[in-house]
Amino acid sequence: MTLSALPAPAGVRARGPRKRILVVDDDSAIRRGLRRILVKEGYDVCDARDGEEAIQMFREHPCDLALLDINMPALNGWGTIAGLRSLDGALPAIFLTARADHRNLAREAGLELMEKPIDLRLLLSQIHAVLSKAA
User: Which H, E and C letters describe the chain, residue by residue?
Assistant: First the structure.
């Protein structure tokens, strides 16, 4: 079952002013599915198909949190978060990846990591926790 085919879970809804989340993944089905779910949960969503587009988009529309794939063409997740954090050094981020071997590296960089396939309830809970901590 693809992410876009899943119903949005009744998870933790965004509270207070709407938070903006940047979703960066080269898989359009993942971007569409996450956008649909996050909007339903009360977030504003920007999405980009690669790191270069994400950095340009962030310059024009800063976000409160980035959800990033690690394996992307041109500029991978690590290069993307470096570029985003050059614009906002405190930007919280969650890597979405099938590569669990990056977990320790992510933690050392102050990032969370969620393994694909994505557990939507866990992801929504993690987003809420990260945004609450950032506030």
Answer: CCHHHCCCCCCCCCCCCCCEEEEECCCHHHHHHHHHHHHHCCCEEEEECCHHHHHHHHHHCCCCEEEEECCCCCCCHHHHHHHHHHHCCCCCEEEEECCHHHHHHHHHCCCEEEECCCCHHHHHHHHHHHHHHHC
**What are the tens digits of pLDDT across the range 96-109?**
988 778 788 888 88
Q: State pLDDT tens for residues 22-42.
A: 999 999 999 999 999 999 999
Please name every residue paired with 20 in a beta bridge, in sequence order, or none if there are none.
Answer: 44
Distance between CA 51 and CA 24 in Å, rounded? Answer: 7
